[in-house]
Amino acid sequence: MSEINLANIVEATLFAAGKPLSTSQLREVFEEHERPDPDAVKEAIELLQERYQSTGLELVRVASGFRFQVRQNLSDWVARLSEERPQRYSRALLETLALITYRQPITRGEIEEIRGVAVSSNIIKTLLERSWVRVVGHRDVPGRPAMYATTRQFLDYFNLKSLDQLPPLAEVRDFETLNAELGFADPAPANIEGEDASGATELSTSDSAEVTQEPLSDDYESAFEQQDEDSVDDVISREFD
């Protein structure tokens, strides 16, 4: 199989998939006797990335694999095709998501301690329904509260390969900065079920507690697969160095 033919197959597969695909998933579309090796697939991807450099599309890598997408500088025009208004989120929800992102794994009680207000059940429900966060274990304290962490879908949505691409915590001076970094629209001023609209609380380290960690699924493990095989604890501690 020639390189150009392989590139065309990879191109067509990514367009038809409608979701990111890893190199191993791309190889699965071939019969076993004609299946290219991983290096050949990577070379085909590099060829496609060069081919699309001067177009309105780009081939990018996110946590789940590779996908085609509209270039960000063209999104304003493409967005006009959608009849739905862009989703808007409350400041409270975005602050909660930011805390989970930088402090994961973290419990609801720890989030409330840092923010100084109760976290609405609707906020946690929304984050879970969007598959941006998931339960990864339970804290070994009375009540065994659930611990939350971000998912591979979270990274895919925000066009990230790994958590290392997030802005360092020291650079996040206020909520508006983080809001822009994550690519959200301006948060809606309305509160959610008693949540306040105060400024983002400083993300300080809370007292540690014993943790009972449940086995992590592929979704959570893959969020860290680009981090040179660091442990989750190493990733978290590095954010606060």
In the CATH hierarchy, what is the class of the largest domain? Mainly Alpha
Mean pLDDT: 74
| Content of β-strand | 5-15%
Structural class: alpha+beta
Radius of gyration: 20 Å
Query: Main sheet?
Result: 4 strands, antiparallel
The number of strands is 6
Topology pattern, helix = H, strand = E:
HHHEEHHEHHEEHHEHH
CATH fold name of the largest domain? Arc Repressor Mutant, subunit A
Note the overall shape: globular
Helix content: 25-40%
Count of all domains:
2
The CATH architecture assignment of the largest domain turns out to be: Orthogonal Bundle
Number of helices: 11
Order of the strands making up the biggest sheet: 3-5-4-6
Low-confidence stretches: 185-241
Distance between the termini: 49 Å
Superfamily (CATH H level) name of the largest domain? Winged helix-like DNA-binding domain superfamily/Winged helix DNA-binding domain
Biased composition (Polar residues): 201-215
InterPro entries: ScpB_csome_segregation, WH-like_DNA-bd_sf, WH_DNA-bd_sf
Biased composition (Acidic residues): 216-233
Region (Disordered): 186-241
Account of the 3D structure:
It comes from Aequoribacter fuscus. Residues 186-241 are annotated as: Disordered. InterPro entries: ScpB_csome_segregation (IPR005234), WH-like_DNA-bd_sf (IPR036388), WH_DNA-bd_sf (IPR036390). There is one protein chain. It contains 11 helices and 6 strands. It is an alpha+beta fold and 241 residues long. It has 2 domains: 3-72, Arc Repressor Mutant, subunit A (Orthogonal Bundle), CATH 1.10.10.10; 91-239, Winged helix-like DNA-binding domain superfamily/Winged helix DNA-binding domain (Arc Repressor Mutant, subunit A). The strands form 2 sheets. A 4-stranded antiparallel β-sheet has the order 3-5-4-6. Strands 1-2 form a two-stranded antiparallel sheet. Strand 4 (133-139) and strand 5 form a beta hairpin. Helix 1 (3-17) packs across helix 3. The radius of gyration is 20 Å and the shape is globular. Mean pLDDT is 74; it is low at 185-241.
